[in-house]
Design a protein that fits this description.
The structure is a homodimer. With about 400 residues, chain A is of the alpha+beta class. The first copy, chain A, is built from 12 helices and 22 strands. Chain A has 2 domains: about 180 residues, Thermophilic metalloprotease-like (3-Layer(aba) Sandwich); about 200 residues, no CATH class.
Amino acid sequence: AADFQRLLAGYAELLVKVGVNLQPGGKLLVNAPLEAAELARLVARSAYRAGALNVVVRYVDEQLARLKMDAAPDAAIEYVPAWLPDEALRMIEDGYSFLTLDGSDPDLMAGADPERLAKTATLRAAVMRPVSQKMMGFEAAWCIGAISIPSWAIKVYPELAPEEAVSALWRDIFKVTRADTPDPVAAWQAHIVRLGKVRDFLNTQHFASLHFADPHGETDLTVGLADGHLWAGVEDHTKAGVKIVPNMPTDEVFTAPHRDRVDGVAVASKPLLVRGETVEGIRVRFEGGKVVEASARSGEATFLKLLDTDEGARHIGEVALVAASAPVAQTGRLFYNTLFDENAASHIALGRAYPFTFSQDPAQSGGNDSLIHEDWMIGTPSMNVDGVNPDGSRVTLMRGGEWAIEGLTT
Amino acid sequence: AADFQRLLAGYAELLVKVGVNLQPGGKLLVNAPLEAAELARLVARSAYRAGALNVVVRYVDEQLARLKMDAAPDAAIEYVPAWLPDEALRMIEDGYSFLTLDGSDPDLMAGADPERLAKTATLRAAVMRPVSQKMMGFEAAWCIGAISIPSWAIKVYPELAPEEAVSALWRDIFKVTRADTPDPVAAWQAHIVRLGKVRDFLNTQHFASLHFADPHGETDLTVGLADGHLWAGVEDHTKAGVKIVPNMPTDEVFTAPHRDRVDGVAVASKPLLVRGETVEGIRVRFEGGKVVEASARSGEATFLKLLDTDEGARHIGEVALVAASAPVAQTGRLFYNTLFDENAASHIALGRAYPFTFSQDPAQSGGNDSLIHEDWMIGTPSMNVDGVNPDGSRVTLMRGGEWAIEGLTT
Ligand SMILES: [Zn+2]
Ligand SMILES: [Zn+2]
Ligand SMILES: [Zn+2]
Ligand SMILES: [Zn+2]
């Protein structure tokens, strides 16, 4: 127990010092599930000790969202107040940093009406758009870190009793975030340098496209890259120049595809959680950048609804490379959580691109836009990835799921 | 357990249907301590079943306030964001009702720096003033109801184990709110009629002052009433015309004193909780409406700081009559909570008056104003209260702590 307390306090420190990299005099908003009080208090303590002016914790009771889905009248599903984004916008202006403690029940919305789910999610995304645009543009420092809560833990460790499942998931979180190393902050600095080298190499190449081919699977996909695309990963800089690590864990490097230059077939290597429902066995065919065929073994209706959110939901806005040996993959577990699973496998994302993955105007460069951004895992331990130059020549990037860039050890 | 669930669900229904009297298509904000998830969900369910458009629950972790008091730099104590009231103001405009589930640790701030406590409370009250003014003017429907949580329950029932203390406090809550009667909603209608008769009688009298005299105590206090004062109690009407019960329980009728016409000595009949500290043995002398002497057996420094908040903090803005036999008093417990204790005894309130206790402009009528409003119990089972007419003649209101108005059975 004392050991757990020590690890948890160190993890809180990591989220504050490396994640949002809170500066003296900084202000912090923490979004957290109800079960996160212990961690949230450690985060607040760590922030105040670092000289924070204010820490606001917004506790979220996700059961209320389910209850609304089931019990509220139809008019309630269509109601999203216009003032919803205002406070967050004021906080961004006011220099707040944003830390999200991510832990939720993967089955929260199982069996709920997909029409109602899609309607609420779409309306909400539209109203909150000014906030997500500013976040994606790094007008504020932000970080998403994981928290082990019972409803999530028992999904990841169904063979364990709830309390043991929570402990097991905490062990995974401490492991993949390096919180269990003697000096977590130093371990992150090393990781940032290591993965930064890959990102920087890719930025020297200016590939026309990436080619994913899995000799043991069906995926054979060419992802054309946006004109003047930029590779990003591990670390970002806010507009004010603060270095942050927006995702913990993070083992991806990623960039912007060209919205009209994606062709071929991609099959999901992991289930995808869409609006609380687990979608399994996704297979998609792209033509000219657009999803022209889509199927799923389970949850297909929800997946098809997602694709129909808007025009941009059938195009992709992110392509990311992750080694098959990344720490999350090493746990051997499926986490039913994007923050974790996307760092276990190479992936693409349906929906909007990140503005910071373009050197020029995103719309002019072939960047995609949408209300959604859904990461979707296609990487496998047998995946080969090449970078394709404008003249058709190729550079080996990954072989058998692992980095294989000549002259670069990672 | 099944019985408790039934009572809790009935209590939730009471808060929604009688407390804020939520209308079909209504919207509800619930402020609740972290421990209130079960009740908050029942409230949400009840609200959605009544046709609510939206229920937002804001969970408050009061430990964060204590942690800030202890660990934050001085600058943090002086920081209150200007945007703090904005969301509540937008919600008031947007027709939201406000339900506060009141449960907190009476010792939360024990031993904290009184300077820092006072500074934060004063700055916060100033920034939140536009909200409290609208609430006091009933521009929104609102209700405060109690919730049993461990830190509060063990203070009320120190002789019990925490879990039993929580159950015992729940029994008290269900009792004083009539949630344990066969038809709680009907029981409240009867209570509203009964206490309403007293309020209506007092409104026909137009007393110049009230005279409190306790033959077994030191209190001998003349409370001059504001010109054109109005008696209020049990039920109020929002500006939109919805009948609400702002406090559950409520057994008081109250009106506005004249800020410059209070004279004599008042001693507290119960401890007062000020900013998380328990102040005991308060004795105050008024002259021309102003507190000119003040002492307390414990917590005196905190009490004196409260009086120094602003000019109006040394004058009173409310005088309230409560029968010594009221349900809360019958429990025989001290609750260290204003919502409960103020409904166990007659009281006065330091600080601002309620605008709805005046028939004309409050400032012109002798109404008091301040950033604070602190109820302060002076009623005892031996207290006599007379209404004094402008010509000096007297009307018996209470004898031995009980209502004794001729011709009125209560
Ligand atoms: Zn990604
Ligand atoms: Zn993504
Ligand atoms: Zn009162
Ligand atoms: Zn009061």
